[in-house]
């Protein structure tokens, strides 16, 4: 049968991938290590008690680089109004070691979320995204692709940054390798005018 057709992807979830083009300085590494000494037990791994890591002046340089990528995602990828300004709300460190995992979740009270990987091995570390709605009829495909899969994973490695809508469900499978995966997660909200006055949906924040 000839492939005399086209497929259009409607309402796709935009997941942004890039790298921070900077070297992490020793003093910044020390700051992150200090924060990982005071942790709480997460569902499967550990997270820093400090949930405003990027507010510290010691990592101002890294925060600035992350903000550049957030603006690219916000303005160039999603083409959002210039009257809306994204800003980082909370930010925290995650540590995942052998046999640990990161539970399936999304992020409430946030518009964008993201992860910057301080330590990760692209050969073994990954992030998994999940379809957020229930399939009413389950059909087993002969070959999985973007259209028929309920989950999709991507490799993650050191200096990667990933940004996605906060309502996107994601997780980290149980680690089988003995390297420590350290990530800096962050949430982003918006300042400015949301919605439309005419449509009676206006909200100024």
Structure description:
- The strands form 3 sheets. The protein has a 7-stranded antiparallel β-sheet with strand order 1-9-6-11-4-3-2.
- It has a single domain, classed as q2cbj1_9rhob like domain (Jelly Rolls).
- By secondary structure, the protein is α+β, with helices and mostly antiparallel strands.
- The chain has helices at 26-35, 60-77, and strands spanning 16-19, 39-41, 46-48, 85-96, 102-105, 112-119, 126-130, 151-155, 160-165, 169-172, 181-191, 193-194, 203-204.
- Strand 12 (193-194) and strand 13 form a beta hairpin.
Give a short overview:
This protein is α+β, with helices and mostly antiparallel strands. It has helices spanning 26-35, 60-77, and strands at 16-19, 39-41, 46-48, 85-96, 102-105, 112-119, 126-130, 151-155, 160-165, 169-172, 181-191, 193-194, 203-204.
What's the CATH topology name? Jelly Rolls
Weakly predicted, low-confidence segments: none
Order of helices and strands: EHEEHEEEEEEEEEE
What gyration radius follows from the Cα positions, in whole Å?
Answer: 19 Å
Q: What strand line-up does the widest sheet have?
A: 1-9-6-11-4-3-2
Give the overall silhouette.
globular
Mean pLDDT: 95
CATH class: Mainly Beta
Please name the fourth-level CATH homologous superfamily.
q2cbj1_9rhob like domain
Distance between the termini: 55 Å
What's the domain count?
Answer: 1
What class do helices, strands and sheet pairing give? alpha+beta
Strand content: 25-35%
Count every helix, treating DSSP H or I runs of 4 or more residues as helices: 2
């Amino acid at each position: 049968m000839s492939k005399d057709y086209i497929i259009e992807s409607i309402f796709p979830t935009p997941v942004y991938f890039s790298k921070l083009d900077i070297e992490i300085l020793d003093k910044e590494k020390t700051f992150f290590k200090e924060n990982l000494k005071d942790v709480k037990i997460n569902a499967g791994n550990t997270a820093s008690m400090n949930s405003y890591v990027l507010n510290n002046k010691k990592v101002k340089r890294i925060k600035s680089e992350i903000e550049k990528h957030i603006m690219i995602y916000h303005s160039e990828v999603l083409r959002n109004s210039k009257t809306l300004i994204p800003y980082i709300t909370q930010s925290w460190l995650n540590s995942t070691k052998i046999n640990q995992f990161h539970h399936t979740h999304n992020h409430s009270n946030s518009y964008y979320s993201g992860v910057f990987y301080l330590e990760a091995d692209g050969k073994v570390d990954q992030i998994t995204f999940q379809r957020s709605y229930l399939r009413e009829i389950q059909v087993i495909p002969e070959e999985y692709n973007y259209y028929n899969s309920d989950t999709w994973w991507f490799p993650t490695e050191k200096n990667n940054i990933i940004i996605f809508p906060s309502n996107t469900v994601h997780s980290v499978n149980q680690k089988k390798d003995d390297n420590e995966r350290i990530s800096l997660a962050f949430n982003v909200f918006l300042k400015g005018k949301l919605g439309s006055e005419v449509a009676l949906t206006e909200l100024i924040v």
